[in-house]
Amino acid sequence: MLNWLKRLVMLVIALGLLITAVCYGVLTLSLPMLDGTGRSDAIEHDVEIGRDVQGQAVITAKTRQDAAYGLGYAHGQDRFFQMDLLRRNAAGELSELFGEAAVNLDKRMRFHQLRKRSELILRSLPVDDQTVLAAYARGANEGRAQTGYSSFEYLLTGAPIKAWQPEDSLLVIFAMYLDLQEGTFQRDRTLIELDTQFGSEMREFLTQPSRYQAALDGSKLALSNQPVPTLKSQTLTALHHIETPLDIGSNNWAVTGALTKTGAAMLSDDMHLSLNVPSIWYRAQLNYLQDGEAVQVTGVSLPGAPAIVVGTNDAIAWGFTNGYLDTADWIELDTETKTQIIKEEIALPKGQVSFFPLEMSEFGPVETFNGKRYALSWVGHQLYAVNLNLLKLETAQSAQQAIELAPSIGIPVQNLMVVDRAGNAGWTNMGAVPKRTEPSNIAVQERDYTPTWLQNETDRPYVLNPQSNRLWTGNSRVVGLSDNLRFGDGGYALGARAMQIRDRLFESKQFAEDDFNALQHDNEARFLTPWHELLMSTLQSSPNGVDTYQDDLRFLQNWQRCACADSVGYTLVEAYRGKVLDVAFASIESALRQQGSSLKPIKRNLEPAMWKLIEAQPKSWLGQYESWDALLLDSYVQAKADLTAKHGVSMAGWSWGEVNALHVQHPFSRQIPLLSKLLDMPKMPAFGDTFMPAVQMPHFGASQRFIAQPGHLDNATMTMAGGQSGHPLSPYYRAGFEEYATGGTLPLLPGELEHRLTIQTTQQ
Predict the structure, then answer these.
(1) pTM strictly above 0.85
(2) Mean pLDDT, the chain, as a whole number?
(3) How many whole angstroms separate alpha carbon 290 and alpha carbon 235?
(4) Residue 339: what pLDDT?
(5) DSSP class of residue 219?
(6) Which of 44, 60, 466, 725 is 20 to 30 A from 458 in CA distance terms?
């Protein structure tokens, strides 16, 4: 019997080793070829694709068209499945990969009909741009096909691989529109429903201006003197957590050459997005000729698109933060307004099909909520939303020239920060902006709709070489008061982060790259300091407070005033603030949820209203509580209960580094945890939070960190939240992540090439 058991155990072990070896062998077959020679008729001249120790792709070509082919080839080798997800997500075609589970998401995306719009835009582009997209598509398909074996993602899903088409690159840009601007029209919908259920007085109270303002011209929106509105008795079905929207992020700032030793201006840029494996960005350097002149542009690209999104050509360097101008309006349709129904077809695996009706109007697609029909007019539905004019930045020679290009570039509207080697630094709004002059956060009546929606606004504010020699943005209002009325509020950040960046910049008179890196990692808790004081006061003044909350107060006294990894006090303050918001606005959140809505899209706006409530202590807002002291204390009790449920009974284990640990995961491992060790980045202690320059949550934060002085790129840095390759057996899968997670830096410029792949032309 014992021998039989031993043999069975050995057999199981042997089978396990065999399965592991087979899986490893299959995965190895799909690794891309990084050295050698290939051939293609899609290029006019030979193209070289090199890779350095980090896996950064270095493309060397004679023309921009051939460079696009080379970049597409590298993307196709390293990131094709990621590209496939981006185009399918934007087009509403994920169900073909993932079946019925993705149908509702596809319906939400089909509402915008972005594949049809991409096909239409493609036909309207200049011939040169169509040629670049076609070359990129050929490169992507040939790069993917070169491996000769399907990647593990397609093996797991069993889905067919579809060739990349030129219009798919436009869909990838639309995918960024959805990431960056979907919150704008969701916010407007929440405000419409608030207005209907609670009245305009309540809506204005919840969205009143904050004291956290950092516009570049120093202008201030007047703070509200509005009294706290009475909250009518509401039925509280349950206490819901008001989720934090993950569409806010990104910092950039710059100083002119007057504040650097070199005399060149210097830029910092870190774009905050959801963090996944593989990283959203892909490091690349393009080398090609333009009108006989050598062009070299280095930075990050977006797999699926043929451009360097953020980077430098050594004459200028540029970076973005999301602009949050108001780019959407809901048009309330009259009852007699005629619409048409379009039958949308969603493909499922094995040839199955799902259908759903989409209602369309002359103003845009129609959705019914709040008991009425509304059409969405959104910049993403316009022909000027997407183009390839971003490529023109690659050859711009000055900050002024880049600013002049900005209005014509078809991307989601961004805060462009640009510097040049002559010492100039500038800011402007880059990207598509509708020309309408009266944006609205609530419903627009049909009679007030303006056809100027069909035009891109080219008259943009800008700042070049300010007297202070400093520029900054952090997703809050950047424009002056008159431009704020003209462009509207599409969901600005609160402003605490931008204020902290601005104030840090005025603490020094000279800057180098190390100073900018330190500011990128600034996690001082200036925003939460008033909440820390409130919590200390609440506990100390509670019945038997010093005795009951002795350990709590000790941790709070030593909170370090930062989102530091070993701070338990920071965890307590952050959790307390969140629970106070949940409790204070519970009846409003409950009422909205009954209508399928939430305060989530305007959660960042609730801060000034919350403090007005704490100061005024209105009885109509107390709900079940006898006093505001009781509400504030019970909020802390509930916050502790949540922390206990998630992280155990020992408060010593509630350090911010553990509670907010950085955990960058692959989408597949979230569904199949057994794959986590193979696919995920290592879990790392937290180093930041939301209302500070060092933005970091478990799955959200700086997707890259970029610092550069044109003309002095040997000191420039680019650090990403993940490696270059999407293949888990590639040496570049996790390359660079440790430096990112520990506050280090990596050189922007590629190092010595470890691999060289030459694609030879077969054209005669």
Answers:
(1) yes
(2) 93
(3) 67
(4) 95
(5) -
(6) 466
Q: For residue 539, which of 554, 525, 529 has the smallest C-alpha distance? A: 554
- Report yes or no: 718 and 57 within 8 Å, Cβ to Cβ: no
Show Cβ contacts of residue 183 under 8 Å, excluding neighbours closer than 6 positions. Answer: 245, 247, 491, 601
Radius of gyration of the chain (CA): 27
- Structure tokens given for 150: 């399907």
Calpha distance 108→94 (Å, rounded)? 11
The whole-number pLDDT of residue 543 equals: 85
Dihedral sign for Cα atoms in the order 678, 689, 283, 151: positive
Q: What is the 3 state secondary structure string of 656-712?
A: HHHHCCECCECHHHHHCHHHHHHHCCCCECCCCECCCCCEEECCEEECEEEEECCCC
Q: Cβ distance 303 to 748 under 8 Å? A: no
Which amino acid belongs to residue 99?
G
517-545: string of b/e by CB count within 10 Å (b at 16+)?
bebbbbbbbbbbeebbebbbebbeebeeb
> Under the phi-then-psi rule, with left for phi > 0, alpha for psi from -120 to 50, and beta for the rest, what region is 416?
beta
Please give the pLDDT value at position 545: 73
Q: Decide: 434 and 455 in contact? Cβ < 8 Å.
A: yes
Q: How many CB atoms lie under 10 A from the CB of residue 177?
A: 24
Residues 511-528 have pLDDT tens digits of 999 999 999 999 999 999
| One-letter amino acid for residue 764 of the chain | Q
Q: CB under 8 Å to 728, separation ≥6 — which residues? A: 27, 152, 678, 679
Give first-to-last CA distance, the chain, whole Å. Answer: 75
pLDDT for residue 27 is more than 80? no
| Omega within 30 of 0 (cis) for the link into 434 | no
Q: DSSP label at 384?
A: G
> How far is Cα 343 from Cα 358, in angstroms, rounded to an integer?
6
CA atoms of 392 and 459, how far apart (whole Å)? 19
Length of the chain: 764
Instruction: Give percent helix, percent strand, percent coil of the chain, each to the nearest 5.
Output: 45, 20, 40
pLDDT of the residue at 671:
87
**List of long-range contacts for 88-92, beta carbons under 8 Å, 24+ apart:** 89/175, 89/178, 90/114, 90/115, 90/171, 90/172, 90/174, 90/175, 90/177, 90/178, 91/115, 91/118, 91/171, 92/344, 92/346
User: CA 142, 143, 146 angle in degrees (round to 5)?
Assistant: 80
Q: Are 375 and 330 in contact (CB under 8 A)?
A: yes
- The alpha carbon of 92 is separated from its chain's Cα centroid by a whole number of angstroms, namely 19
Are residues 416 and 253 in contact, defined by beta-carbon separation less than 8 angstroms? no
User: How many of the other CB atoms lie within 10 Å of CB of 688?
Assistant: 23
CB proximity list for 610: less than 8 A, separation 6 or greater: 580, 581, 584
Cα–Cα distance between 722 and 705 in angstroms, integer? 12
Report the alpha-carbon distance of residue 13 to residue 24 in Å, rounded.
16
Residue 1's pLDDT is 55
Q: Which ranges of 558-674 does DSSP label H, i.e. alpha helix?
A: 568-584, 586-593, 606-616, 628-647, 656-659, 667-671
